Amino acid sequence: MALNAPAQIWKKKAKEEPAADTTAPKKEEEKKEKKEKSGGGFFQKVVGKLAKGAAKVGGGVTGATKSTADLSVVEPHIFLMNNLLPKEIGTIDMDFFNGWKSGGDFVGVMFMPKDRLFMYKMDGSIKMDGKDADYQSTGVYTKIFDPSSNARTLELETKTGQKARFTLKPNSNQIKLVSINNKTTNCDIDISKDFSIQVANYSSRPNALIKVRIVAQTIGIRTTYDVGNFNAAPSITIPGYILKHINSTNKGMNFKNCYLIVDDAALLELKDEAGGYSEPIKYIAMTSSALPVKLSADPKIFEGLEAEATEKFAAGKVDYSFAKPNAYNGRPLEQVKKIAVTTFAISGTTYFYDKKENKFLDQTTTKEAEFPQIPDAKLTAILEKMYPQLTKIIEEELGASFLPAETVTATKDYQSIARYSNSDANTKEHFSKAYKGLRQLPAVLPLAVTFSGENALFKATGANALLKVNLNLQISFDKKAILQPILEVELLGEKNGGDLGMSLTKYFTAEITGEGFPIKNKKEITDAVLDNEVVRMDDLLAMFRKGLQDLKAKEKANGEYAPIWNLQK
Q: Where are the domains of the chain?
């Protein structure tokens, strides 16, 4: 379940904001600044209303949202927020949700499908504290109330008579951002230096984290961006460079009329008092507090690290390309201790056909290429050779250990995800083969599975990193047909913020690409040719090691990843 789930409904990736006109008269700048201080402005309000309308209409037209009267097909994700942020902060969610009240309470529920990709709208009634909930879009219902320390109720009743009832207790910690750099007014942050925040009424539970967000504006839209999660304490010292690592890749952001926000969130359990759900349902109880702050300059967002190189081998060139997001979503490599392999497979295409017609020239161009079908036994042999070699490289370079494949595949959490994967296949056109049942996990899952999904594997296995590997043999046809080996590797970490985070973090993603092997139709391919000229495992793994060493060196030179993540300890 995500901490900022309700805010994600309307969020879109913003385009780069145009540069400011520095030749504008000073009075125009003053007018602009005054308008920004009043909130997001007219443009933002229009966008907020259009986003809501488009989501409602688009969901019905495209089939992204469907109605159901069956509680068993959905998992309710419930959230209760107290002490809503002041209206003067002016973020777009305040325009999107009906009746925003400064300091008020927000109750919401999102119906996550257990077995489908679309969202569900409830065919029946949804009441919050006895009042009809406001339907927002994509299966989300909300209601905003005056502030109260009392519990809130959520009641569901479908047209078929199924019922569920929950009593939501507020977070017992009404967090307060007392000061920034020990100042309660006229707060400022020099982004080139450390700054501190002073906090009261935060959680004292073990390993409690305080989330910090910041308000910024892109193309006229104000919203909040996650800065980081920090070990709960009355005073927290934060490096200024962390503002380059916020959870965004947007360019052209400005931080005028800026606010710093702290959140205290707890993931609690509910019992269905009406008996519609036999298992406990989890919900988020959150409180927030904010102070205005002036930054010394707009941070230039750091998008992450890249490591790329090409090297020649006897059988042709091999490229490596490693990428790591900034420190909000990218964990330091030194954290990798115990790895669970969740995917280890070989896949590809062995047949290509393309036909194009040029009516103007009255010409037809046909491209066709076929690579001999690779026997199952050979695919298995490739995987059995690659698994120990690749895992050994990671062990040596990162000092990590691996769990046995059987330990991973035996967990219920892995099995619940793997059932959405395709089984092994081997035809004349394509193939896919997994090592010891470590299938290629689907990129898209039902949302109820996605929000727990792979993140649950960390607790189930005791690992702190998940490895996905796929050796992809892909036919392409430009001037000539080639079969190209691409080794795809991804090392994932737990969500930033644990169960309250949005998505898994990454230690790195990598692609090691070999020069294509020319395909000559109906030519016999021996095992030696397949190993040494097509797959080229030794060359690919040699470049994987070099790329990993390159990324390690660049992360060390950057010097910011480990210090940021150590603030959670």
A: 5-295, 305-561
